[in-house]
Description:
Mean pLDDT: 84
Helix content: under 10%
Strand order of the largest sheet: 1-3-4-6-5
Radius of gyration: 16 Å
Amino acid sequence: MSLEVTGVIKKFLPLEGGETKGGKEWQSQSYIIANNDGYEGAEQLFCFDVFGKEKIEQLNSFNKIGDNVKVSFNIRTNEWKEKYYTSLASWRIEKVEGGSVEPVKEAKDDLPF
């Protein structure tokens, strides 16, 4: 299953890395996207992951904080020691020209309940 989200790059998190059980090195980069698709236009945040040195270099060289982008991603869940961890693994980032992301709107206090 492939999904898409459009928004603004808000932040790049610190690079993470380590070594697999087989002795192979790995790297991961997370970044935050914000859009206004929440309840009554409230800001929503998404934390995406990119794995692999080459993909991380592409992410950082072509994308900057404040860029309007469309992110294609897959949802992944891994189990470790009977705990489950879900991540949003991005596999494509495209620039969105013309700034289609609107500023954050104030939420109203007229909840239906």
